[in-house]
Amino acid sequence: MVPPSCTAPRACEQQTSVPLLQLLSGHGASPVTAMLSRSSCVYRTLGRSLSAASQVNNALVHQSISHSVCSQLVYRKSQRCEFPSSASVYHIRYFKTSAVHRDEVVTVKTPAFAESVTEGDVRWEKAVGDSVTEDEVVCEIETDKTSVQVPAPAAGVIEELLVPDGGKVEGGTPLFKLRKGAASPATKVAPSTAADAPAAAAPPPPPQASAPPATPPVPPQAAQAQPVDAVKPTAIATAPPAAPSAVRGENRVKMNRMRLRIAQRLKEAQNTCAMLTTFNEVDMSNIQDMRKIHKDAFLKKHNMKLGFMSAFVKAAAHALTDQPAVNAVIDDTTKEIIYRDYVDISVAVATPKGLVVPVVRNVETMNFADIEKAINALGEKARKNELAVEDMDGGTFTISNGGVFGSLFGTPIINPPQSAILGMHGIFDRPVAINGKVEIRPMMYVALTYDHRLVDGREAVTFLRKIKSVVEDPRVLLLDM
């Protein structure tokens, strides 16, 4: 039975939120503690009170409650609980945290290198006191194979550079200290300077001084009064002779690690491999006609242009499958020959910092469109200096296209530990004999440099003729000839 003084148990439970909130604010703790020990329904009431209190966010609540509550409640097992007749004023404040690490100084370390790279040289893009935004490049670390960019982890100001420019670092070496959320003094002063500029221009210009009276013109008779012979020539002031511009001088620049590594590897190739070069020429008429016919449809479907590189890469993959010795490599440590059943072709790309050779993998499974997409993606990464070491590891054969610079003829150098490299050159119109007649055709010289320790002349010449036949007539790929 519920006594008349408390008509609904739910209403009484709602009124009990006042002393329970007092428990949260630190007022009236002893009566509530006794109540908790005697009543089993308080737990439900506590849950409702906490749920109601959680709906108030980011506000200061001032409430003064003075009212009467049920004097008696009857619960199971005939236990009674009494509540105080009134509650004192209580306060509930909620706080919202802001940026805790606003002016925190963090130390940025060198990122981890690939397994084949142990150290690099630092080239700073920012100085102490410079403001940086999040992900803005602070420095570059030049390694033997590529450059690793180190961005700022957050917006702030460079506090200290821990490594000098050109210093050697390893993975995990502290590079610089960054104060988060700060602004450089130049940034703070700039707005005030810009605001003062219009104010400085606001005062009206001072009144112009009165112009001096004009000199009366010389009468024309005065100029004619003296004969020409009597006029003495006046000396004209001559400028001093200019200093000679042919100044001879020298400028020494330290070689970066990538250039040093390229020079070392090229010299190792000359000292290790027994390099020999064979040549041939390719008639580019058919591949040019195919490109002219299908370039618009290819661009519309694949959103990129159809070039000649994909034809040579696919032809090289076809020839490497036919002549596996050119795709093999000598393991000098174990004195074994390693034959590969896959084709990963390195495409040489010239960058301002040196020659890089990103790898197009599994070319034997690609078509022309797949090859063009892969080459374009790697070329874009090379231009943005975003090539990783993994993009340049593991090639089995290299193609170098000197024709983009207008090269007519050349002998490429093997990229160790590979066993051969194909050199492409420029396309020039030349007279050639076709069926007993002289015709002008677009021709390209191609050169294959190979390691004669592994590849014999028969394999090298057959390989180069296979590339010639595929480029001159791509239908050979469909016939698997």
UniProtKB/TrEMBL annotation:
One GO term of the cellular component aspect?
oxoglutarate dehydrogenase complex
Pathway involvement? Amino-acid degradation; L-lysine degradation via saccharopine pathway; glutaryl-CoA from L-lysine: step 6/6
Cite the entry's keywords alphabetically.
Acyltransferase, Lipoyl, Mitochondrion, Nucleus, Transferase, Transit peptide, Tricarboxylic acid cycle
Cite the record's Pro residues compositional bias ranges.
201-220
Q: Which intervals hold domain Lipoyl-binding?
A: 105-179
Coarse class of the primary localization is mitochondrion
Where, subcellularly, is it found?
Answer: Mitochondrion matrix; Nucleus
Name any one GO molecular function: dihydrolipoyllysine-residue succinyltransferase activity
The annotated regions of Low complexity compositional bias extend over 188-200
Q: What is its EC number?
A: 2.3.1.61
The cross-references to InterPro entries, in alphabetical order and at most eight, read:
2-oxoA_DH_lipoyl-BS (IPR003016), 2-oxoacid_dehydrogenase (IPR050537), 2-oxoacid_DH_actylTfrase (IPR001078), Biotin_lipoyl (IPR000089), CAT-like_dom_sf (IPR023213), Single_hybrid_motif (IPR011053), SucB (IPR006255)
What does the function comment of this entry state? Dihydrolipoamide succinyltransferase (E2) component of the 2-oxoglutarate dehydrogenase complex. The 2-oxoglutarate dehydrogenase complex catalyzes the overall conversion of 2-oxoglutarate to succinyl-CoA and CO(2). The 2-oxoglutarate dehydrogenase complex is mainly active in the mitochondrion. A fraction of the 2-oxoglutarate dehydrogenase complex also localizes in the nucleus and is required for lysine succinylation of histones: associates with KAT2A on chromatin and provides succinyl-CoA to histone succinyltransferase KAT2A.
Q: Which family does it belong to?
A: Belongs to the 2-oxoacid dehydrogenase family.
> What is the name of the protein in this document?
Dihydrolipoyllysine-residue succinyltransferase component of 2-oxoglutarate dehydrogenase complex, mitochondrial
The organism named in the record is Parambassis ranga (Indian glassy fish)
